[in-house]
Amino acid sequence: MSRWSDEIEWLDPTRDFERIVFLLGTCEFAWDIEKALEFALFRTYAVPSISGLLSRTGAFRRDTRKRYDDTELLLSEISENGQHSARGRAALDRINEMHGHYRISNADMLYVLTTFVVEPPRWLDRFGRRSMTPKEREAWAAYHRALGRQMGIEDIPEDFEAFDTYGRAYENAQFRYADSNAEIGKATRDLLLSFYLPRWLVPLGRPAVHAMCDPPLRAAMGFPSPPPWLQRLVIAGLGARATLLRRLPGRRRPRLITARKRPTYPGGYRISELGTFPKGSRSD
């Protein structure tokens, strides 16, 4: 057990969920939760109504990296500073203002929120140094229930299991191929690979991403099925990393996403300049 998990054991998941989420996301599972949330957003692009809106805005064609950074920074401002802090409130207002310019169904908003709830625990079950404890899952769901309410989302599930049930049913009903899925999915896949590979090697890394996608997700994105040996290799590699992590000491200080230097904002950023808005709007 780490010092962070020791602290979590003393906290109340119904009252202290923001502190628990902060510790999980910046200390206990910093890299894993960041990757899991990247994959969570990636899954949402397999829904044509979601990818279609993103395609129509043109943001991914104009600047995929800025669209990615803006989303990550807005969510991290909230989780790292608190939903009711000045910066967290400003980020929430910016998200709500941005969403208010587009016609987005409650069902789509709820599905995106659901992926934020279920994908990190699923990732940690498979690839983490350990799984989330029941208390941590409860706090993780409670945090996102509170976040969803502040975003005006209705009919939010009561607990992790209900989120999981909703997400699986929604994917069964809504995952299907669309050209916009392929457009947004391919752009995001190549961006994420570019964080680890030089541009000329990105095409060689694509099958590894496909190997991490389940068959319905691959079909909805139009991705080819990777060879079975590659799937086994990718899963084994991540499993070996988890085994190594269990033998290493935990993180000594928080890893803050908002403190990271980015080529998109070389001189730093302001919350008021994050997000994608229609051209000609006051926030554009």
From TrEMBL:
Residues annotated as domain ER-bound oxygenase mpaB/mpaB'/Rubber oxygenase catalytic: 58-238
GO-annotated molecular function: oxidoreductase activity
Classification via Pfam families: MPAB_Lcp_cat
Source organism superkingdom: Bacteria
Protein name: ER-bound oxygenase mpaB/mpaB'/Rubber oxygenase catalytic domain-containing protein
